[in-house]
Structures are given as C-alpha cells and as structure tokens.
Amino acid sequence: HDRLALVRDMFLLAKSGLIPTDVYLETLMFTKNELSYVIWSEVAKQLNQLCRMTFNTKAQIKVEKFKTELFSQLLNRPEMGLKRKANESTNNSLLRGLAFVEAGLGGNKQAVAAAQKYFWAGKRIQSVDVNLRSAIFATVARYGSTSQIGTLIKLYKQSQLAIEQQQILHSLIAGATDKTQKVILDLIYSEHVRNQDKPFAIA
Questions:
Q1: Percentage with pLDDT > 90 across the chain
Q2: How far is residue 152's CA from residue 49's CA, in Å, rounded to a whole number?
Q3: Torsion (CA) 180, 122, 168, 47 in degrees, nearest 10
Q4: What is the pLDDT of residue 201?
Q5: Cα–Cα distances in Å, from 110 out to 70, 82, 120, 131, 140?
Q6: How many helices (H) and strands (E) does the chain have?
Q7: CB under 8 Å to 66, separation ≥6 — which residues?
C-alpha cells in the first residue's frame, strides 16, 4: 500500500506542477524490481494520462519512449516473458498482459512479432489466451496489415458475447493509427456496434 501511495502521490505532485515531470519519471525507475499488478496498472494509467496531456508535443514522444522502455524491461523479466508459466499466479498472468500491451503498442519488436504469431495461430477468439487477448489485438491493430485489421473486425462481428466485442473494439481503438482510424470509425457508427457501446468507443 505504501508503494502504491508513493506512486500516486508523485504523479499528483508532478501533475500539479509542484515537482518537475523528470523527477516523477526518475521515481518510476525504482519500480524495476516491482511485480505487483496493482502498482504497475497504476503506473500505466498515469503514463498514458501524461501522454494525453502532452499530446502532439516533444514531451509526448519522450514519455512514450520512457513508457515503452519501462514496460519492455518488465516484459523481459524472468517471471514474465511472452508465454504463460506453469502454475503461475493470477497476478503474474495479469501483469504479463499489461506489460505486453504497453510494450507492444510502443513498438517493442519481440512483443509485435509475438502478437502477430499468436494472432494468426488463434483461428477463434476463444483460442487466444484470455490474459493476452487485449495485448495481442491492440498490437496487431497498431502494426498489423490491412488484412489483419479486417480479420479483427470480422471477429468482432462474428462474436456473440458482448464482453468479447468490447475487448476487440477497445483494442482496435487503442491501436488505431491515422491509416486505420476511418475504418474503425466506420465500424463504431455501423449497426454492428450496440448503441450503449458507441459513447465509450468515441470518448
């Protein structure tokens, strides 16, 4: 709890301008030995918020690079890696998915290659590891081919479960690029997306 409070307090201080952002980022370097999903989830949320706050500036590029390197280091830890370990804890399974998606969206070559491999190997959405689905789908949405984007949209339309559709839709949005945003918006405004999901999709 103390570690989580420290991470939250440092971000609030940086956000309010009471400490330099660089000091906050330096503090996060001490998380290199951290393995708590709760703490890393908070770190990811903070860095993604910081990226939005600095959108389209040099600072955003710096924060994005820092985030990718931080989560790539986490993903490369012996306890993590790109594959589920035998008898691992729920914490580590969730943490791998988080590290995978943050590193993958940032362009980590191993994560991108693994996402491509797992995506094509999974003929059905149910065959993809549930803790890695969002990471795989979002990374493929960011770096995949037009054909792969089309396959993701096809999976969305074929799924009969709302939670699976939401997972795919959120992944498409997270991985959206200038080249893919039109086709994703076309999907959002189509009859295939439920009205109650549209506001969250475009927020």
A1: 58
A2: 26
A3: -80
A4: 79
A5: 15, 8, 16, 18, 13
A6: 11, 0
A7: 25, 28, 47
Q: Which letter, b or e, does each residue of 16-53 get, where b requires 16 or more Cβ atoms within 10 Å of its Cβ?
A: eeeeebeebbebbeebeebeebebbebbbebbbebbee
Q: Is 75 in contact with 108 (CB distance < 8 Å)?
A: yes
Burial (Cβ within 10 Å: 0-12, 13-18, ≥19) of residue 99: buried
Nearest to 140 by CA among 102, 113, 178, 121: 113
Element (H, E) at 188: helix 181-188
Distance between alpha carbon 133 and the CA centroid of its chain, in Å? 10
CB 75 within 8 A of CB 99: yes
Measured distance CA(27)–CA(11) in Å, rounded: 10
**Calpha distance 163→165 (Å, rounded):** 5
In angstroms, the first-to-last Cα distance of the chain is 31
pLDDT over 90 (residue 50) = yes
How many other C-beta atoms lie within 10 A of the C-beta of residue 7?
Answer: 22
Q: Please state, in angstroms and rounded to a whole number, the distance separating the CA atoms of residues 121 and 180.
A: 23
Alpha-carbon distance of 144 to 107, in angstroms, equals: 12
For 169-185, the pLDDT digits (tens) are: 999 999 988 888 899 99
* DSSP secondary structure letters along 8-65: HHHHHHHHTTSS-HHHHHHHHGGGGG---HHHHHHHHHHHHHHHHHTTTSHHHHHHHH
